[in-house]
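BUG-245 | component: ligand-complex export | severity: low

The export step for NAP jobs runs without errors, but we want the raw record kept on the ticket for reference. Input record follows.
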Amino acid sequence: MAHRNFLDRCRLFVYTAGIAALTALLPISGAAFAQTSTIKIATIGSGNIGSTVGGFWIKAGHPVLFSSRHPEELKPLVDRLGQLARAGTVRDALAFGDVVLMAVPYGAYPQIAKEYGKEFAGKIMVDAGNAVIARDGEIAKPARENGVGLTTAKLFPGARVVRAFNILGTGRLKEMANHSPLFAIPIAGDDQEALKVVSALVREAGFEPVIVGSLQRSKLFEQTGPLYGAQMTANDMREKLKTLQ
Ligand SMILES: NC(=O)c1ccc[n+]([C@@H]2O[C@H](COP(=O)([O-])OP(=O)(O)OC[C@H]3O[C@@H](n4cnc5c(N)ncnc54)[C@H](OP(=O)(O)O)[C@@H]3O)[C@@H](O)[C@H]2O)c1
């Protein structure tokens, strides 16, 4: 039943986000169509990327629980972000969020999967992690070889993994959010409904989503891929994609 309520909330969210995107194109005030649906989001990791992307979603009106192994240290962050922000442990985050942003060093994924893997079942996971061999140890090797997306999906078999927000540093993300024209964020995943929800969340963060395809295809925007670091519009990214295998 809880899973069903979550799906219903996601559908309402995608629907209202779609209306918001359409009204932005119409010559009437977008403010007349206030957002009516929010989605509960949690971050696993609240450092550079967790606090930045979570902060975008707070601005868009979503409640976000930021997690850490030392949640008391997140007080300045949640005080700064206001009433929609709260802090907690990883377990609190997984109890709270329908959508979970993975924002920890890739080396921590196996331990998090071992301790909390079951709690990810049915959750949409926005995977922003990058695997760096010098930093992340053994797990970085299969991630580099097979792609982070497929490696994460193997570590968290119940999660609905969507790769997003991994291609740019947080300084650039903050500068680029809500730029006119919008900059593209490539996303990829194997679950179509999860892709729709994350597309809407990318829009609400102030970017235009470009669905690159399956998790396998997310290799195109990993550190060794041609779209890593891309700073371009969605149209330009779609044109570039046509030239890539
Ligand atoms: N920095 C960027 O601009 C950027 C851009 C795109 C993608 N990324 C990727 O995003 C991920 C995070 O990078 P970051 O720069 O945001 O890192 P960061 O600033 O160092 O933050 C890492 C966060 O992960 C938490 N953490 C670490 N180990 C953990 C564990 N075992 N269990 C639970 N929480 C843990 C830390 O919290 P506590 O220590 O308080 O528990 C901290 O909040 C990396 O995979 C990185 O490659 C980063």
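Assignee comment: Attached the raw record above. Residues 2-24+37-242 form a domain with the Rossmann fold fold (CATH 3.40.50.720).
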